[in-house]
């Protein structure tokens, strides 16, 4: 029936060129019904989806802000750790340098002591060898003197024979050496 009246109303409107109050009221009622249906079936769910989307975006923004704050905190912690590591490395390098200097000084002092000990030992050995050599020469001179004296006593020689005898003994001693 509603369809018939629409079709009739449209035919009447085409025949009358005027404003039809029934059509206006009908269209107004249909528009209000359409709005009510849209509000019930489309507007509510659409607003719910928009609300959910708004909450989702707000949560994402909040999570991003928390992540940014956490990242800033971690960055500060990392900077503090890096600074501490640099200080520790510097301290280790200073300790190693000091220890190296101390070892160098110890090695130098030990080397000087060893050199002094070796020098003193060498000087002592030289002195002993010198004394032995002097003693050996004294013994040889004594032996030669006794030998020459005994030869001179054995023979009473004239000056030429005496010189020849001394010369022969000097040559004999030179050959023994």
From TrEMBL:
Q: Report the GO molecular function annotations.
A: proton-transporting ATP synthase activity, rotational mechanism; proton-transporting ATPase activity, rotational mechanism
| Main subcellular location | membrane
Entry's transmembrane regions = 24-43
CDD domains linked: ATP-synt_Fo_b
Residues forming coiled coils? 64-132
- This protein's UniProt keywords: ATP synthesis, Cell membrane, CF(0), Coiled coil, Hydrogen ion transport, Ion transport, Membrane, Transmembrane, Transmembrane helix, Transport
Its subcellular locations are: Cell membrane; Endomembrane system
Give the membrane topology, semicolon-separated if more than one. Answer: Single-pass membrane protein
Q: Subunit composition? A: F-type ATPases have 2 components, F(1) - the catalytic core - and F(0) - the membrane proton channel. F(1) has five subunits: alpha(3), beta(3), gamma(1), delta(1), epsilon(1). F(0) has three main subunits: a(1), b(2) and c(10-14). The alpha and beta chains form an alternating ring which encloses part of the gamma chain. F(1) is attached to F(0) by a central stalk formed by the gamma and epsilon chains, while a peripheral stalk is formed by the delta and b chains.
What is the similarity comment for this entry? Belongs to the ATPase B chain family.
What's the protein called, per UniProt?
ATP synthase subunit b
| Species whose genome carries this gene | Niallia nealsonii
Q: Taxonomic classification, please?
A: Bacteria, Bacillati, Bacillota, Bacilli, Bacillales
The gene it comes from is atpF
């Amino acid at each position: 029936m509603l369809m018939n009246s629409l079709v009739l109303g449209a035919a009447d409107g085409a025949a009358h060129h005027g404003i039809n109050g029934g059509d206006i009221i009908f269209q107004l009622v249909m528009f209000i019904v359409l709005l009510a249906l849209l509000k019930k079936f489309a507007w509510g769910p659409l607003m719910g989806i928009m609300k959910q989307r708004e909450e989702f975006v707000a949560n994402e923004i909040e999570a991003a802000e928390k992540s940014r704050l956490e990242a800033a905190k971690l960055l500060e912690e990392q900077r503090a750790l890096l600074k501490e590591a640099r200080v520790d490395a510097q301290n280790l390098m200073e300790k190693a340098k000091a220890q190296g200097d101390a070892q160098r000084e110890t090695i130098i002092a030990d080397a000087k002591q060893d050199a002094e000990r070796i020098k003193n030992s060498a000087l002592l050995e030289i002195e002993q060898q010198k004394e032995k050599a002097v003693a050996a020469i004294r013994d040889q001179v004594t032996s030669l003197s006794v030998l020459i004296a005994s030869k001179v006593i054995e023979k009473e020689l004239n000056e030429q024979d005496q010189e020849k005898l001394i010369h022969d003994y000097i040559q004999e001693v030179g050959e023994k050496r």
